[in-house]
C-alpha cells in the first residue's frame, strides 16, 4: 500500500459512470485534487483516495454504486488510510443516506461543489467525514484553477452549460443537476484556447441542455462561431440537445460552419404524441420530423442520433408502433434506448408501471430496428472518403484509430504522426461497431 508522505504523491483513482459530463467532471476533480498533491492511478488497490463519480439517471446506474461500495470495503479493510468518496448525481440525490448506509464512505460531493474537494480532502485526512451537496452561489469554474498545460489527447470535452429546466416527467436531472446555468462565453473561449494550445483539435461542448445555452448573445450558434475562429481547433460538436431549443441560428450554423461536424444527438424519447405529452416533452412527433427536415435541408449529410424510452407508464402497443414509425421515417445513424426506469421524486413515478416483460419485448424490437439502421448507415460509408481525426494507435501494429466526421470509429494503417491530425480516409470495410479504411491523402 502506498504511504502518504509529502515526498510521495498521493494516488487518486476515479471511476466514472454515466454521461460525458461526468467524464469532464472527473478530469476537473482530478485537477482540483492535484493541488493537494494527488496524481491519478488506474489501480484502485494502489490508491489513497477512491472517488466514484456516479450516475442517477436510471435505477440500475444507482444500484451499481452500492455494489461497488461493497467491493471497496475489502480494500479499505486492507488499507485503513484509504479514503472513499462519492461524487456525481447519486451523491447529490442520496448523499446523506449513503453516509448513513455505507460507513465505508468518507466523503460525499455533489456535482456543483467539487471545487471544494481540496478542503474536504483535508477534513477527511484529519479523520472527519465530509458532505457537500449544496448548489453554491460561487461558480465552481471560477474557483477551479486553469487547466494544466500538459499535452492532451486530440479530442476533449468542455462543459458550457449545466442543469435543466425542462422537467420531463421521467427524469431526475432537473433535481440532481439543478436549474439551467450557462458559463459566460468569454470563460469558455479562454478554456477552449488553453485546450487547443495543449494539443486539442476537437471540442465537444457539453450541457444537459446544451442548445439552451445563453452565455453568448448569439446563443449556442454564437458560441460555436466564436470557437470556430480559434486557429488550430478543427472540429466542434455539442451534446445533448432538446428539440425545442434547436433555433434557426443553430440550424444555419450546421449549414455554413465547416468546423461544426455533421452529427447531431437529438433525443426524441417517443414517437407517440400521447406519450410525449405525458412525458412533458412539449413537442409532438410531427414537430420533431419537421425539425429534422429543416436541419437536413441545412446540412444534407447530417447523421442523427437519439435517445428512446420504451415502456413509459401508459404506453400502449399502438404508442410503441408510433415510435417505430418515427424511427423508420428518420433513419438514425446511431441511438441509445432504455426501458423506462422509475425514479423516485419524478412525476411519472406515481403512475402505474408496465410489466417488465412488455418493456423487454419492446426494447428488443426497437433495438433490432435501430441496429439495422445503424448497420445500413455504416455500410453506406464504404467507398466514401471522410475526414478522420486520429486519436491513438490501434491494437494491431501500424494501425491508428480515430473518429470520422460522423463520429464513427475508423481504423486505418497510418504512421504514428497522424495522431492529432484530421486526414481524409477512404472507407473500405464496415464492421459491427467500426469502419476500416485507407489514408487518402
Ligand atoms: N428511465 C429510462 N431512461 C431515462 N432517461 C432519462 N431518465 C430515464 C428514466 N427514468 C434516458 C432518456 C435521456 C437519457 C440521457 O436517459 O432517454 O435522454
Ligand atoms: Fe432530463 Fe433531458 Fe428532459 Fe432535461 S430535457 S428533464 S435532462 S430528459
Automatic annotation (TrEMBL):
Residues 10-126 form the MTTase N-terminal domain. It is found in: Cytoplasm. [4Fe-4S] cluster 2 binds at residues 164, 168, 171. It catalyses: N(6)-dimethylallyladenosine(37) in tRNA + (sulfur carrier)-SH + AH2 + S-adenosyl-L-methionine = 2-thio-N(6)-dimethylallyladenosine(37) in tRNA + (sulfur carrier)-H + 5'-deoxyadenosine + L-methionine + A + H(+); N(6)-dimethylallyladenosine(37) in tRNA + (sulfur carrier)-SH + AH2 + 2 S-adenosyl-L-methionine = 2-methylsulfanyl-N(6)-dimethylallyladenosine(37) in tRNA + (sulfur carrier)-H + 5'-deoxyadenosine + L-methionine + A + S-adenosyl-L-homocysteine + 2 H(+); 2-thio-N(6)-dimethylallyladenosine(37) in tRNA + S-adenosyl-L-methionine = 2-methylsulfanyl-N(6)-dimethylallyladenosine(37) in tRNA + S-adenosyl-L-homocysteine + H(+). Residues 379-441 form the TRAM domain. Keywords: 4Fe-4S, Cytoplasm, Iron, Iron-sulfur, Metal-binding, S-adenosyl-L-methionine, Transferase, tRNA processing. This is tRNA-2-methylthio-N(6)-dimethylallyladenosine synthase. The lineage of its organism: Bacteria, Pseudomonadati, Pseudomonadota, Alphaproteobacteria, Rhodobacterales.
